[in-house]
Amino acid sequence: MGNILRTVTLDRASRRKDKSVSLTFITDMEQSTEQFMEIDKLISHSGVVYFKAVGEISEEELQAIEDSKFEFSGKKKHEILDSILYKLWVTTKPVENYGDFYKSQYNKFIKHIGDQIPE
User: Fold this and answer.
1) Which of 39, 34, 37, 33 lies closest to 6, judged by CA?
2) How far apart, in whole angstroms, are the C-alpha atoms of residue 16 and residue 113?
3) Cβ pair 10, 2 in contact under 8 A
4) Residue 18: which of 97, 96, 75, 60 has the closest Cα?
5) Distance (Å, whole) CA 26 – CA 5
6) What is the dihedral of CA 22, 72, 34, 60, to 10 degrees?
7) What's the 3-state SS for the chain?
8) The whole model's pTM is what?
9) Measuring CA to CA, which residue among 69, 68, 51 is closest to residue 7?
10) Cα angle for residues 8, 14, 17 (degrees, 5° grid)
């Protein structure tokens, strides 16, 4: 995937329930449709943000970023849900096999969320 390098302003930071932090940046310049498409392609991908409060990024900093290796730990939200469903299946010992149990639980969850949408 591509990289995004923009000058930005850190607009806000807020703590989430799981103790992670949501960061919001605003680009300092208007973005063309092509530039926005470049950003849009990376939505929901994990990555690394290097934020420098003032000045330009030096060639040494840029090279260090490019040379860095990052491993992302932790599960994605859908993987956590899948793990919890499996644990529920193991502990409740339903009659159905795991595949059927998984499908029925996902369908219940989808219905539960769908039922909350106002008409």
Assistant:
1) 39
2) 21
3) no
4) 75
5) 13
6) 100
7) CCCCCCCEEEEEEEECCCCCEEEEEEECCCCCHHHHHHHHCCCCCCCCCCCCCCCCCCHHHHHHHHHCCCCCCCCCHHHHHHHHHHHHHHHHCCCCCHHHHHHHHHHHHHHHHHHCCCC
8) 0.52
9) 51
10) 140
pLDDT digits (tens, 9 = 90+) for 23-51: 999 998 999 999 999 999 988 887 888 88
The structure tokens listed for 15 are: 């703590």
Residue written as token pair 């302003």: 9
Amino acid letter, 89: W
Per residue in 52-105, pLDDT (tens digit) is: 888 888 888 888 888 777 766 666 777 788 888 888 888 887 778 888 888 999
- Inter-residue contact 23 to 47 (CB < 8 Å): no
Scan for tokens 């690394």, then name that residue: 48
